[in-house]
Amino acid sequence: MEIEKKVKRLKTIIIALSAVIVMGLALGIFLVVKFNIPFAIRHSGTKFYAPSDIELIQKRAHEEGRNDFKNELRTRLNNGDTINYLLRTYFPDYFVYSEGSVYRFKEIDDSLAKNELKSENFKTSDSEISYSDGDKKAHKAIDVSTYQGSINFSKVKSDGVDYAFIRCGYRGYSEGKIQDDASFDENAAAALRNGLKIGTYFFTQATTKAEAEEEAEYVLKRIAPYNVTLPVAIDVEKITTGTARQAKLTDSELTDIVVAFCEKIKAAGYTPMVYANMNYFAGHLDLSRLESYHKWYAFYSDSLYMPYKIAMWQYSSEGKVSGIDGNTDINLMFEDFEK
């Protein structure tokens, strides 16, 4: 009887010890899964690392990961990747751009329409870029002003250009007076006569909504004699020389001006569009308020970086087109605006 009691007592102790071991193992597994705490299985049995061991392991892992990252950076830079390109690949949830020596990160707004153009469908040949995706094919377009001099639009047409955006005027960035583009009438008439579809753009320096509406009314009068079937764009960009009238505007005030211009153009039955570069689209315009307008994006590169939907991409300011002496802007037009 006494022996049986001892046996039962021994069994109870064994069961209790087993339960403790099992609970310990379960707790260890839980900590590993939940908090990513490393542990090792050694020949002497299961052993949990002490806090000092864990810190050492994490430090080594961090150093190894940092070294891997440094090696990757060095390799990519040696292969010609730019800082901007690297940052954009490492921060895909941000619209990354630079202003001087400063890199800026604008979180991408998921509520806005995204750029769904496929990189593999862009092709480059002789410095010209094309885009084709099944039935969807981008159109080659130029934009010109008086700076291109006299243009032979017959030769332009024969060079595969069917679409031209012609500057009709601008507002001076210092005195604020609206000026005609001296070549607009000649360019508009000649382009239409040679079978090109035309749109127009106006360089803004409006500082109030009233001035923006004044600019729109000016444009509407200038284009009235011509069959303008492509968009009417407001050109918003930074002045790099002198002091610009818009330099002190807030982002909200600048967006107010763009909206006022576009609404006036839209009310007249034309298609409004906003022309700007990456810095303005990313950092100086409230795109949530411009979602209903087409975007004309100036980004000089052989590959497109733009998270949001665009209608046109101005990819070069140094294009060569028959009929135009010197350089001209070359664009891909992704939307079909013909009426």
Quick take:
By secondary structure, this protein is α/β, with parallel strands linked by helices. The protein is built from eight helices and 16 strands.
Secondary-structure blueprint:
Elements: H1 2-35, E1 39-42, E2 45-48, H2 51-78, H3 83-90, E3 94-99, E4 102-107, E5 122-125, E6 128-133, E7 136-137, E8 139-144, H4 153-158, E9 163-171, E10 178-180, H5 184-193, E11 197-203, H6 209-223, E12 228-235, H7 251-267, E13 272-277, H8 278-283, E14 294-298, E15 312-319, E16 328-333
Parallel strand pairs: 8-9, 9-11, 11-12, 12-13, 13-14, 14-15
Antiparallel strand pairs: 1-2, 3-4, 5-6, 6-7, 8-16, 9-10, 15-16
Tell me what the structure shows:
- This protein has 339 residues and is an alpha/beta fold.
- It has a domain at 113-333: TIM Barrel, CATH 3.20.20.80.
- It has eight helices and 16 strands.
- The protein has helices at residues 2-35, 51-78, 83-90, 153-158, 184-193, 209-223, 251-267, 278-283; strands at 39-42, 45-48, 94-99, 102-107, 122-125, 128-133, 136-137, 139-144, 163-171, 178-180, 197-203, 228-235, 272-277, 294-298, 312-319, 328-333.
- The strands form four sheets. It has an eight-stranded mixed beta barrel. A three-stranded antiparallel beta sheet has the order 5-6-7, with no helix packed on it.
- Strand 6 (128-133) and strand 7 (136-137) form a beta hairpin.
- Helix 6 (209-223) packs parallel to helix 7 (251-267).
- It is globular, with a radius of gyration of 32 Å.
- The N and C termini lie far apart (106 Å).
- Residues 1-7 and 29-47 have low confidence and may be disordered.
